[in-house]
Amino acid sequence: MFKHVVLLALLDVLTAKDKPLCYLDTHAGAGGYLLDEEQARKTGEWRDGIGRLFDARAVPPSLRRYVDAIRSFNPDGTLRVYPGSPLLAAHALRANDRLVLCETQDDETSLLRASLRGDPRAHVHQRDGYAALRALLPPAERRGLVLVDPPFEQQAQEFRVIEVALAEARTRWPTGVYAVWFPIKQRATIRPFERWLGARGWRDVLYAELLVRADNSPLRLNGCGMVVVNAPWRLDAAVAPMLPALKSLLAQGEGASHQLRTLA
Fold it and tell me: Is 149 one of the annotated active-site residues of the chain?
């Protein structure tokens, strides 16, 4: 939810200008998810997330844009479908924008193609997303957003891969907007990435974070964060009211918190 709320805010800010843009997702996944499938029913994780908000009598104003987007995929008012980043981006973008979606897994790629079949703006690539940054940047539109959202199977090592890819991508396309999502299990694991970003000398690096419990709870996903490089003007003002609303809604214990700051 945190990732998608920030993503929609980013796309809304970027589409405020008339010129077309390119959205590139390095780890697109299946596109969307059925909450009545066996795995979703078994874990029930969505009930402590979008399930809390979808049926809420009073939706916080800062989250209405996000809730309206989710409801557009569930027009009968019953929550059965949860759109992933590709579908939310397709929903938010305009007719003259373009989506470039990368996924490596066979099953996920097939589902992704099926979910966007008939959308001429969407181009699905079964390839490594990091390699795609080297091959596909800069885009013809010269404006746009890259979302880096890997599975983080090995957290510390994934950050090092992101650092290499992000530095190279920004060299190829200095004016692009780059959003990197990451999980927070232990605070110590993300400190080196923060220091690395701070040492780049890049301007307009916005750091947003949401914790649903204290960040030292062992062996748990305690929260997540997103860093936006070349953050567009007014993004911070758009995101600022969303974070306390999400914290109030999703908190699962003491230590729940949020923060929004610029990395210098």
Answer: yes
* Local confidence pLDDT in tens for the 264 residues of the chain: 999 999 999 999 999 999 999 999 999 999 999 998 766 666 678 888 898 899 888 899 999 999 999 999 999 999 999 999 999 999 999 999 999 999 999 999 999 999 999 999 999 999 999 999 999 999 999 999 999 999 888 778 999 999 999 999 999 999 999 999 999 988 888 999 999 999 999 989 999 999 999 888 776 789 999 999 999 999 999 999 999 999 999 998 888 999 999 997
**Residue 262 backbone dihedrals phi, psi, to 5 degrees:** -100, 135
Q: Which of the residues 119, 149, 204, 236 is marked catalytic?
A: 149
Residue 105 phi, psi (nearest 5): -75, 135
- CA 56, CA 50: separation in Å to the nearest integer? 10
CA angle, corner 85, sides to 255 and 151, nearest 5?
A: 60
Residue ranges and CATH numbers for the domains of the chain are 2-262 (3.40.50.150)
